[in-house]
From TrEMBL:
Signal peptide: none annotated. GO terms for molecular function: acyltransferase activity, transferring groups other than amino-acyl groups. Residues 4-289 form the Acyltransferase domain. Keywords: Membrane, Transmembrane, Transmembrane helix. This is Putative exopolysaccharide production protein ExoZ. InterPro entries: Acyl_transf_3_dom (IPR002656), Acyltransferase_3 (IPR050879).
Amino acid sequence: MKLQSIQALRGLAALLVLIFHIHELEVLAIADNNLTERAWVGGLFTNGYAGVDLFFVISGFIMVFVTRNTVPGPKQAADFLFARVTRIYPVWWAFAGCMTIYMLAAYGMSGQSAGWQKASFGQPALPFLVKSFLLVPQPAFPILNVGWTLVHEVYFYAVFTLFLLLPRKWLPLLIGGWAVLVTAGGVIGLSAPFAMNWVALAFHPMTLEFILGAVAGLAITNGLIWRSGTLTLLATLWLLAALCYQGQETAFLLEWGRVLWYGLPAALLIYAVAGLDMHDRHAWLFPALVGWFVTLALFQLTGIDGDSPDSARRDATLLTVTVGGIGMLAVIWFGWLLGQGAPDLLLRARAFLRPLLSAAVKLGDWSFALYLSHLIVLSALRRIFAMLGQSDSLAPVFRLGHPGVLDNFAYAASGIALTIAASWLSYRMYESPLNVLFGRLRKALFRRDRSETAPA
């Protein structure tokens, strides 16, 4: 079965990262124009990088869920790894290849230019590119820097493949032991804010987010579903509070802080919405969505950002999240009243909401392409705005930092629209056909007898 709410959360995670980078690139563009206006997109999106943490928790959940009926053994483990590798690498190679072509065109093929040295942290170009395309740890970010998260993902998949060699009943013990090892290694200093080598990768605390998702998956696959609707609302408010309150990035945040601030509420949210999927109770997503938008809008209006004093962030968080929670309760109360007095109207309202969930699921389908393409699109768009903004007549729209919000809105709106369009095109023309092709190849390589239990 397809977990619609989980897929919708993929779309949410990708949007968080997209709008976070819109904010970051807008700040850089304003500085390039020697202007001092604050970036228009801010608020909780200054912590939008937490979409990565949500992705990691979802990955852990999905790995457990899709293998719930898998019979342990080398063939099944190889089947799983083949599916994961062919899902990640071909799409990654396409976007990393685009970035490589740009670097070669801009900085030449010698690899000795300042541009190459900055990107590779002083490494020779060829080893840097090989490690980037293979998604293995190195001192620099991969050629397309969002690929650092895929280095973690590939590590997750490799470890989980080993788990599939052993009896399923051992999985809770294996996951618990993995959590203990990662925690112990991080405590004694084997981790680092950035996983630049194999040891730092193996003991990075963000691995615990994958493990938290796996724990949620174990609970769901074992039928331990409790108060999914209530927990969805509470987890939404918890995650919103973390997004609003967290301030500037620190070394602690880049390791343990992300797990505590974002990983824990994300795990509860995924457990809760998966329960909604299992019992087909998607109506609970509507009050959660209302609470999200109310909190987001109010916090944006406060003007709070990462540089704001802690006391200001705390007060704004308490106010906006409380109002968001009241909005959730108002929707539930109104829905109850409709159920009592006009049940037909309530049913029509629910039918109206189904297309919204369907659109969110489609965005989740495109989320991988969106995640990999968004920096390329936004960077190109920034250059276009810089070029057009040199004209005084076009400055109100294209010169970022110009007085007024027209330029800021134009960059944000066009960035979101063009990135979603690019991700749809990439998914439709490249990623989806590849999934079909490798799906057929997987069946041919790992054909099962009728007597075998096939993985979901």
